[in-house]
Amino acid sequence: MVNAIYLNLKFALTWVDCIDDMQQISSDAELAVENGVAGIIVSNHGGRQLDGVLGTIDALPEVIEAVKGSDVEVYLDGGVRKGTDVLKALALGARAVFIGRPVLWGLAYKGEEGVKMVLEMLKNEFSTAMALSGCTNAQEIPKSVIRYLPNHASKL
Question: Which InterPro entries match (predicted)?
Answer without folding.
Answer: Aldolase_TIM, FMN-dep_DH, FMN_HAD, FMN_hydac_DH_AS
